[in-house]
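2.7 Reproducibility. Because tokenized structures are sensitive to small changes in the input, we list the exact sequence used for DUF4099 domain-containing protein, including any N-terminal residues retained from the expression construct. No trimming or masking was applied before prediction.
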Amino acid sequence: MKTEPVPFDKFAKIGIYPKDLMRMPKDLRDSILSGELSPLMRVNVPVGDNSAVSIPMKIQLAYDKSGKLQLLTYQTHRELDNNLKLNDTELERVGKGDVIQKEFKEDGKRKMRYVQLDKETNALMYRDVATVKFE
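Resulting structure tokens (single pass, no recycling of outputs):
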């Protein structure tokens, strides 16, 4: 990832404040800040009345299409969340652990993305094919 200031404001929206981030084990903190997907963790998300709701999720820092750093959250779901509107064949393949390529239209443009299922959260995760670098 590019080096830029830690987006503490984005972490604060899910109840992770600078002191909490600094208290995390160094290897966990470093992996999150370098853009890796976190392990499943319980996060206390603030709600409007000075209280918080505890939600299990995975988090990841990633750049959006305009190059801005975003904090992605993957909450746990009881059943697979088909927010990407995969067809039955695609759902079956990702359910078996396959990574598929699928074309999506976004702002009138076509984008090829890799899609896979995170079985811990039952969330579909995707990355633009163009942004994936193989070593």
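Helices lie at 8-12, 18-23, 26-33, 88-95.
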